[in-house]
């Protein structure tokens, strides 16, 4: 059937207007993103409003304006526009859940935020950022076991998310679990060695490695080790070993060794002892993920490079060593890719 000229013209006009509107939406969105990235959320919101006049139900525009409203601390409007995205259940659903959940939390509705993230996990079949934010909310409520459970699920979804490892380390630092804190902190520093957060993570690492050891001022040759076995017996031997390694710095055989040298030696011993303690029945992340990786690392020729790499943010000697040993750093990178 042939179309009449008037019908054909109407269709062409419709598609032309549609393409023009879409082009305008994209232009305004790009403008808004640039303003948002520059921290000018008011201008970003103005640009997104222009885009919404052209396409009020655009999931992209509604998500972007919700994010700008969130950063502008207008949480009600952030939730409103997130809901427009969620009701359509199309693109940008994950981002909308994240924005709405965070907005609810910022309003002091943390329990409501937890319910939303749980719903989001079921609907989206899970995503590491949903697990992370759910864990963060539980942590704020001091529900440390729930926080740990969910952040581990997030790590299993994406082991390369630094914040998840840092949260897991923080949870166990608060619980007083030395070995778990050390393992998660090490992996965080491996992923993020040179950021504002790295310095605090390294301080936590050092605190847990030497926190149970002190010198007796009245007896210069005496070292005190305060050791309380963890209820979780699978780490008891490892915790004692950590204290013994720190105390070993005072032994005659270690006189004259620098702090850098002792850090490398003690890190290697820690990883190797954990690897040797691992049993087939150990199925937790501490053994199957952290210990498995670090034990292989300790047995490789790259342990020193690793130690310099994770301490580059707090140690000028490490920075210089990495500059002087670019080949070793490249070899370490190659080993990681093959592993």
Structure overview:
InterPro entries: TPR-like_helical_dom_sf (IPR011990), TPR_rpt (IPR019734). Keywords: Signal, TPR repeat. Pfam families: TPR_11, TPR_8. This is Tetratricopeptide repeat protein. The chain has 339 residues and is mainly alpha-helical. Among the domains are: 81 residues, Alpha Horseshoe (Serine Threonine Protein Phosphatase 5, Tetratricopeptide repeat), CATH 1.25.40.10; 126 residues, no CATH class. It is built from 17 helices and 2 strands. Strand 1 and strand 2 form a beta hairpin. The protein is elongated and about 70 Å long.
Helicity level: over 70%
Largest sheet: 2 strands, antiparallel
The best one-word shape is elongated
Q: What structural category arises from helix and sheet content?
A: mainly alpha
Mean pLDDT: 87
Q: In total, how many beta strands?
A: 2
Distance between the termini: 64 Å
- Unreliable stretches (pLDDT < 50, length at least 5) are 7-21
Radius of gyration: 27 Å
Oligomer: single chain
Strand order of the largest sheet: 1-2
In percent terms, what proportion of residues is strand? under 5%
H/E topology pattern:
HHHHHHHHHHHEEHHHHHH
Q: How many helix segments?
A: 17
Pfam family, one: TPR_8
Organism: Winogradskyella pulchriflava
TPR repeats: 25-58
Signal peptide: 1-21
């Amino acid at each position: 059937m042939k179309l009449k000229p008037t019908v054909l013209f109407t269709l062409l006009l419709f598609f032309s207007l549609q393409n023009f509107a879409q082009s305008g939406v994209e232009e305004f969105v790009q403008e808004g993103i640039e303003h948002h990235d520059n921290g000018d959320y008011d201008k970003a919101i103005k640009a997104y409003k222009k885009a919404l006049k052209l396409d009020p139900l655009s999931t992209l525009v509604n998500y972007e304006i919700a994010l700008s409203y969130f950063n502008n601390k207008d949480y009600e409007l952030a939730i409103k526009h997130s809901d427009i995205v969620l009701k359509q259940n199309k693109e940008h659903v994950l981002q909308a859940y994240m924005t709405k959940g965070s907005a609810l939390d910022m309003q002091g509705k943390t329990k409501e935020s937890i319910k939303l993230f749980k719903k989001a996990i079921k609907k989206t079949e899970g995503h590491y950022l949903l697990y992370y934010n759910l864990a963060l909310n539980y942590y704020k409520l001091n529900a440390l076991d729930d926080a740990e459970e969910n952040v581990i699920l997030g790590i299993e979804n994406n082991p390369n998310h630094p914040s998840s490892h840092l949260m897991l380390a923080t949870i166990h630092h608060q619980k007083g679990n030395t070995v778990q804190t050390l393992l998660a902190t090490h992996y965080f520093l491996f992923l993020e060695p040179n950021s504002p957060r790295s310095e605090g993570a390294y301080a936590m690492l050092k605190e847990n490695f030497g926190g149970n050891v002190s010198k007796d001022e009245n007896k210069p040759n005496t070292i005190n080790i305060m050791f309380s076995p963890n209820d979780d017996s699978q780490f008891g031997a490892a915790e004692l070993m950590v204290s013994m390694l720190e105390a070993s710095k005072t032994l005659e055989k270690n006189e004259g060794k620098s702090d850098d040298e002792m850090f490398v030696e003690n890190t290697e011993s820690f990883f190797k002892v954990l690897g040797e303690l691992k049993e087939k029945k150990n199925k937790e992340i501490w053994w199957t993920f952290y210990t498995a990786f670090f034990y292989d690392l300790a047995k490789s020729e790259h342990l020193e490079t690793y130690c310099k790499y994770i301490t580059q943010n707090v140690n000028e000697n490490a920075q210089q060593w990495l500059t002087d040993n670019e080949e070793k750093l490249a070899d370490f990178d190659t080993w990681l890719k093959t592993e």
